[in-house]
Input
Amino acid sequence: MMARTSRRMLLMVLTIAWGMALCQEPLSTQRRQSLLKTESVEYLYPEQVTVHAGKASPVALHFRIRQNLHINSHKPRADYLIPTVFSIPESSGVRLAEATYPEGTDFMLPAAPDEKLSVYTGEFAIEAKIVAPQGNHLVEAKLRYQACDENECLPPKTITVPIDVIGK
Amino acid sequence: MKRNTIVIGITLFILATFAWAGWANWMYRKQSAERALASASHADLIPAAGDVPQQGSPLMGKPAPEFTLPDLSGKNVSLSSFKGKPLLINFWATWCGPCKLETPWLIELQNEYGPKGLQIVGISTEGDDLKADDKEGWAHDKAAIAKFVKDEHMQYPVLIDGDSLASEYGGLDAMPTSVYVNAEGKVVAVQLGITSKDDMAANIEKALGAGQ
Output
C-alpha cells in the first residue's frame, strides 16, 4: 500500500515537471514578440481614473519616448512638421474638454545646428480635462505623433491610449 | 519499508532538482528579458551610411527594382524611362525634417552633376499607405507634396506613392533614403538618413564612374 502511494507520488511529480517544461518556452516567445512590437512612444499611466460625472476633470497622462528618438511637440516651429496631438473618439462617450501640452524643448539636428526644433524627448505628460457620464467607460484615446532620430524620421503614427474612466 | 524510503528519497531529490532548475531558469529568463527590454528601449533607427558598410543593403550590386509611379500631374513615369542614365533616387516625405534639409543639396548636386549625365528622381513616400480609392487622402497628400516641391524649388522629377515600392526597395522604414544607380542600372550605393552633401557627392561619383 505504502509502495503504491510512493509510486503515485513519483508519477505525479514527473507529470507536473513535464507540464512545467512545456509551459516555459511559449512564455519566453510571447515576451520577445511583445518587445519587438515596442512603439516609439509608450503610454505609461494612469490605466484607470475616477472623475466627477458630468464635470470636466483633470487627468495627467504620462508617456515615454524611446531613447535616442524625439517627437515634435504640440507646437512645432514649422508648418510641415506633424504636431503631437491627443484625442478621444466621440464614440467613446467621454469628451475631451481641453488638453494642455508641455512646452517643447529645443533640439538641433547635426546637419542643421542653427535651426531649432521644438520636440519632446524622454518622458512627458499631457494634462487632459475630460467629461464622463456616470458609469464605467473603457476609452480608447489616441496619440498622434511623428518620431525622428538625429538623421532620419519614421512615418507619423497614431497609438491607442487605453483608459478606464469611472464617472461617479 | 526500506524500498519506500528509497522511493521517497528519489522523489524528494527530483523535487529539489526541479525547484533548483526552475529557479535557475526563472533567473535566466528574467535577465534575458531585461537585456531585451534595454535593447528595445534603445532606439537605433537605421545607421547612417557613413557608419555602416553599404554592402549591408540587399539592393547593393543588383539592378534597381523597376517601378512605374505617377508624378503630380498624374503622368506615369517608369524607371526604364531613365535607362542609360546614372540616377540618384531620393525617397523623401513632406513631414521629414532631414529630407527638407538635404533638398537644397540635391538641387545643387543636380545642377553640378546634371551636365555629367546625373538625373535625380525624388519619390515622395508619406508612409500613410493610402488605398487607391481614398480620394480625400490622396488629395491631401498631393497638396502637401506640391507645396513642398514649390517651396523648395525642386526642379528634378518628383513622383508620388513611394510606399508602394517599400518591399522592393528594402522596406523604406525611415526617411530620407537615397539609392544611387549607375548607367548600367545597378545599385552602387544606398544612403539611409541624412549625412552630408559631400557624402552624397561621393556616392554620385560612384554612380557616374561605373560603366564608363
Notes: Confidence is low (pLDDT under 50) at residues 33-42, 46-55 of chain B. Residues 86 and 133 of chain B are 35 Å apart (CA to CA). Strands of chain B lie at 68-70, 76-78, 87-92, 119-124, 158-159, 177-181, 187-192.
